[in-house]
């Protein structure tokens, strides 16, 4: 079973996460941010991975530190879980509709972290979740996991739908990228390393 287990404690947050890539979509999520818990639940379900996340943060300030630090911890757990990347597809891509919204997520376990976030998301709150934290979460995750990650919102009006489609699209692209392929010997690179 490919899994990563990471704990991180700062003066602003205390976070623990376990990410098992070879799971069934089960999860145990508690960040204190209802909408974010919903998004992480969708991430587990649609990536067919098992995810445990417990976070305590300074929510009396806002959601920023908790969401970003969860991205850091989950990125580190994902990097640990994927290991040496031998035998995996490496790349993943997903177009995902959610009602009026359509998004595309493309990713590469290149070891060269980069984020392109082409999304005009209204700066609103969904419960206590700041919608603009979506970009910060995925930036932190991509940087820590060593992912090249492109997220593009083609269109959409409802903020909830747009963000939910992003998380689901990331999950589906991730599932594709980490899937084993018997045709892949070693890593999927002509250099022999990622």
TrEMBL record:
One family name in Pfam for this protein: IGPD
Gene Ontology annotations of biological process type: L-histidine biosynthetic process
Pathways involved: Amino-acid biosynthesis; L-histidine biosynthesis; L-histidine from 5-phospho-alpha-D-ribose 1-diphosphate: step 6/9
NCBIfam families from the UniProt entry: PRK00951.2-1, PRK00951.2-4
Protein name: Imidazoleglycerol-phosphate dehydratase
Family label: Belongs to the imidazoleglycerol-phosphate dehydratase family.
GO cellular component entries: cytoplasm
Transmembrane spans: none
PROSITE patterns according to UniProt: IGP_DEHYDRATASE_1, IGP_DEHYDRATASE_2
């Amino acid at each position: 079973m490919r899994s990563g287990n990471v704990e991180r404690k700062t003066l602003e947050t205390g976070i623990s996460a376990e990410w098992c890539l070879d799971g069934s979509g089960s999860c145990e999520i508690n960040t204190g941010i209802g909408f974010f818990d919903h998004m992480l639940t969708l991430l587990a379900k649609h990536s067919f991975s098992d995810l445990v996340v417990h976070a305590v943060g300074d929510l009396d300030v806002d959601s920023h530190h908790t969401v970003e630090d969860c991205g850091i911890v989950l990125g580190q757990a994902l990097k640990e879980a994927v290991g040496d990347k031998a035998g995996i597809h490496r790349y993943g891509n997903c177009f995902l509709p959610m009602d009026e919204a359509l998004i595309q997520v493309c990713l590469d376990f290149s070891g060269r972290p980069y984020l392109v976030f082409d999304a005009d998301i209204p700066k609103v709150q969904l419960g206590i979740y700041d919608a603009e934290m979506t970009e910060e979460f995925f930036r932190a995750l991509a940087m820590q996991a060593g992912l090249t990650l492109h997220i593009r919102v083609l269109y959409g009006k409802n903020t909830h739908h747009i963000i939910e489609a992003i998380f689901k699209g990331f999950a589906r692209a991730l599932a594709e990228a980490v899937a084993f392929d018997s045709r892949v010997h070693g890593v999927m690179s002509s250099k022999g390393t990622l």
